[in-house]
């Protein structure tokens, strides 16, 4: 799978939607994600931290926007966070997000996950044991 969106462009698009906001003791929007679909469309989202584990990661928000638009195949994805010192970081997807990406479409196992300006890996590499297990009997 190839895409014409560079890592730098994807990082910049995610960075543009970073908008941290504190509500009580919760922080919203401090991590942003952008993905590009196989069709070349971009979708972004931010994380929401809520009580009782009902929040979600930025990747989930971007994927929800993609699915709302009736797309399922992710070519490339990135998540970013800015430290209190103003330094931008690329974050790898957590385990829950890795599995979520995989379950949206079988072909997403080959999604390119941006890990830095010049570094990426396939979801297959980040989620190596992803096949349904063989039966024991």
From TrEMBL:
<keyword id="KW-0862">Zinc</keyword>
<dbReference type="GO" id="GO:0004126">
    <property type="term" value="F:cytidine deaminase activity"/>
</dbReference>
<keyword id="KW-0378">Hydrolase</keyword>
<dbReference type="InterPro" id="IPR050202">
    <property type="entry name" value="Cyt/Deoxycyt_deaminase"/>
</dbReference>
<protein>
    <recommendedName>
        <fullName>CMP/dCMP-type deaminase domain-containing protein</fullName>
    </recommendedName>
</protein>
<comment type="similarity">
    <text>Belongs to the cytidine and deoxycytidylate deaminase family.</text>
</comment>
<feature type="domain" description="CMP/dCMP-type deaminase">
    <location>
        <begin position="30"/>
        <end position="105"/>
    </location>
</feature>
<dbReference type="GO" id="GO:0042802">
    <property type="term" value="F:identical protein binding"/>
</dbReference>
<dbReference type="GO" id="GO:0072527">
    <property type="term" value="P:pyrimidine-containing compound metabolic process"/>
</dbReference>
<dbReference type="InterPro" id="IPR002125">
    <property type="entry name" value="CMP_dCMP_dom"/>
</dbReference>
<dbReference type="InterPro" id="IPR016192">
    <property type="entry name" value="APOBEC/CMP_deaminase_Zn-bd"/>
</dbReference>
<dbReference type="GO" id="GO:0005829">
    <property type="term" value="C:cytosol"/>
</dbReference>
<dbReference type="GO" id="GO:0055086">
    <property type="term" value="P:nucleobase-containing small molecule metabolic process"/>
</dbReference>
<keyword id="KW-0479">Metal-binding</keyword>
<dbReference type="Pfam" id="PF00383">
    <property type="entry name" value="dCMP_cyt_deam_1"/>
</dbReference>
<dbReference type="GO" id="GO:0008270">
    <property type="term" value="F:zinc ion binding"/>
</dbReference>
<dbReference type="InterPro" id="IPR016193">
    <property type="entry name" value="Cytidine_deaminase-like"/>
</dbReference>
């Amino acid at each position: 799978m190839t895409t014409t969106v560079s890592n730098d462009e994807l990082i910049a698009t995610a960075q543009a939607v970073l908008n941290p906001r504190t509500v009580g003791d919760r922080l919203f929007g401090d991590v942003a994600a952008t993905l590009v679909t196989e069709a070349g469309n971009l979708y972004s989202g931010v994380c929401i931290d809520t009580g009782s584990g009902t929040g979600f990661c930025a990747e989930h928000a971007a994927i929800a926007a993609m699915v709302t638009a009736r797309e399922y195949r992710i070519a490339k994805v990135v998540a970013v966070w800015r430290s209190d010192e103003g330094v931008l970081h690329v974050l790898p997807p957590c385990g829950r997000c890795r599995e979520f990406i995989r379950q949206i479409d079988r072909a997403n196992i080959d999604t390119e996950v941006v890990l830095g300006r010049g570094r990426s890996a396939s979801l297959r590499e980040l989620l190596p044991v992803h096949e349904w297990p063989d039966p024991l009997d």
